[in-house]
Amino acid sequence: MAPGSSIWAAWSPSSEGDPNIRGQNFALVTGTSMATPHIAGVAALIKQRHPRWGPAAITSAMMTSADVFDHSGSPILAQLTNRLAPATPFDLGAGFINSTRAIDPGLIFNAHLKTMFNFYVMFLVSMMSL
């Protein structure tokens, strides 16, 4: 749900990780582990506001309220081979998290374990019939 890309984060100056940012206190780092603290914080805010919501409802709230436009109203861009182009869902998923809207999204899709199980069973049955 949170493929972090270029997240501004604290960085150990003595890290042996990326030689390009060795010696720096902060760095733009990419990866799910970089986005997880941000997503967990927004999920905690939503859970505080809606204590009866489970993981599916919280995930839905974050995804259905995400932004696909930047702060200036322009489409979020993705880096192609040699240029920038409007991002697709394959680039940005649901979009950039909007914590203000996620707390009160208006509509959520709340799936329970039984619902997911039935979906997967029906999916497997349909695949067997091909």
Write the layout of secondary structure elements.
Layout: E1 7-10, E2 26-29, H1 32-49, H2 55-64, E3 77-79, E4 84-86, H3 89-92, H4 99-103, H5 113-128
Antiparallel strand pairs: 1-2, 3-4
Helix pairs in contact: 1-2
Family: Belongs to the peptidase S8 family.
Domain Peptidase S8/S53: 1-81
Subcellular location: Secreted
The secondary-structure class comes to alpha+beta
Can you tell me the residue ranges where pLDDT is under 50 for at least 5 consecutive residues?
A: none
Radius of gyration: 19 Å
What is the strand content? 5-15%
Instruction: Estimate the helix proportion, in percent.
Output: 40-55%
The strand order across the widest sheet is 1-2
Count up the domains. 1
Give the distance, in angstroms, between the N- and C-terminal Cα atoms: 30 Å
Number of helices: 5
Assign an overall shape: globular
Q: H/E element string?
A: EEHHEEHHH
Count of DSSP strands: 4
Condensed summary:
The protein has 130 residues and is of the alpha+beta class.
Task: Please characterize this protein's 3D structure.
The chain has 130 residues and is an alpha+beta fold. The protein has one domain. Helices cover 41% and strands 11% of the residues. α1 (32-49) packs across α2. It is globular.
Tags for this model:
hydrolase; single chain; 5 helices; two-stranded antiparallel sheet; 11% strand; signal; alpha+beta; 130 residues; Peptidase_S8_Ser-AS; serine-type endopeptidase activity; Subtilisin-like protease
